[in-house]
Specification:
By secondary structure, this protein is an all-alpha fold. It has one domain (36-126). The chain has 5 helices and no strands. The chain has helices at residues 3-25, 41-50, 55-79, 89-102, 108-120. Helix 4 packs across helix 5. Residues 21-25 have low confidence and may be disordered.
């Protein structure tokens, strides 16, 4: 490949890269949520109540546990502090179930973030 054809290829690659970046900069799309975070509270409560039961229900609940573990890990790494505030992980899952019972229309992400926000608020002394 000669110098001229190499420059043409390089110019094409730079143009493709510039156009793809320009297309994403103007996009007004909301970030996508994947996996168990988009499932509704009703689904989570069914799985919460059936945990430890039949194999399929247990596997479904493990999906919620793993998804929340990823969320907690990501937020902890991004913020530089323990977002669970030494709260046992299992207790956070229980608090999400309580949130879902009161807010059945929420999705798992919304319920999880509400619980984590509640943990980050300073506790009032009696």
């Amino acid at each position: 490949m000669g110098y001229a054809s190499g420059m043409k290829l390089r110019t094409k690659l730079v143009l493709i890269l510039a156009l793809s970046v320009a297309g994403t900069l103007g996009a007004e799309e909301k970030p996508q949520v994947w996996g168990y975070g988009v499932k509704g509270c009703e689904d989570y409560l069914s799985s919460w109540k059936a945990r430890g039961g039949e194999e399929r229900a247990g596997a479904d609940f493990i999906g919620y546990e793993e998804w929340l573990a990823g969320l907690v890990t990501g937020l902890t790494l991004a913020s530089g502090e323990d977002v669970l505030r030494t709260q046992p992980f299992e207790e956070a899952l229980g608090r999400i179930a309580q949130h879902c019972e009161k807010n059945i229309r929420d999705d798992f992400l919304t319920a999880g973030l509400a619980v984590l926000r509640g943990l980050s608020k300073p506790r009032r002394s009696p």
